[in-house]
Design brief:
- The chain is an alpha/beta fold.
- It has twelve helices and 13 strands.
Amino acid sequence: MQNTLMDNKLLNNSGTDMLTIARPDDWHLHLRDGAVLESVVADTARQFARAIIMPNLKAPVVSVDLAQAYHDRICRALTANGIQKSAFTPLMTLYLTDNTTAAEIIKAKASGLVHGVKLYPAGATTNSDAGVTNLLKHCGPALEAMQEVGMPLLVHGEVTDPDIDLFDREAVFIDRVMIPLRRAFPDLKVVFEHLTTREGVDYVTQAQGPVAATITAHHLLYNRNALFQGGIRPHWYCLPVLKREQHRQALVEAATGGSGRFFLGTDSAPHPKGLKEHACGCAGCYTALHAMELYATAFDSVGKLDQLEAFASLNGPAFYGLPVNQGTLTLQRQAYVIPAELPMADTSVVPLAAGETLGWAVRA
């Protein structure tokens, strides 16, 4: 049976029908490359002024030169979509490997182009095979340089050991990686990306030093039951995977609670419909099209629309040391039906919650 978020009574708790906020940023975004990039970049640029661009292409972005080349391809894709370069700024990242040097980190900081370095534990998610095998053993010089120049480390916070239960990967990562990392590099700026658990919320809330976290719209709105409602639903499958309801509630409390340590990161990931609906389907939810509508739904569900601007537009720039955007974005309470699918390169992509109805829409 078709389900809608409105039917689940997730809307209309605040009494607000119009909300204008400083133009938001997306602090965790996958754009891919080539024809896919050109197909999806406009969805993000319609709502966000800036985005942290993930570096896990099939050929990972491991150097400043590669980051510059990718940046230029993004700018060309914007132009192809009729979007002025001044309307959207891609904030580039490097893919951390066992071989990343301190010199490359210093070059990245000096470039003004690179705003973070991404840690993918090897095998953690899409295109992560080149990821780090042992962070402190292999990456010490790079981490020390990052601490010295103020370059944030963006972590995919999961261990990948096959003996660790999929739903426990984040909690184990805190014990095995985050705590030793913070002990060794207490002044290193760290973003715990796409946080999914109560343990993660507690860690980020209580940690000493410059620690923050991004939270996705799908982890705010759904628990792991969404994966199996009426059968296996591959378009709800992402990594980190959706968790129990108690964890979703903890994320909502964190996002709406007024702490400056939590901010918006969609982790929007475009995958072809055929590869999602596959015998071994890939992980990732496409939310760039309707990200702010989803976040507004989540905040409205607990009567905290007044906290959306801080989460979406203020906390991220403060952590990254960037100015708040000058423009604004307005959301209006009205029915918005999520399209069943969207054209993407020579195929299509299915947005999260396709066919469902939201109660908020971004005004043009």
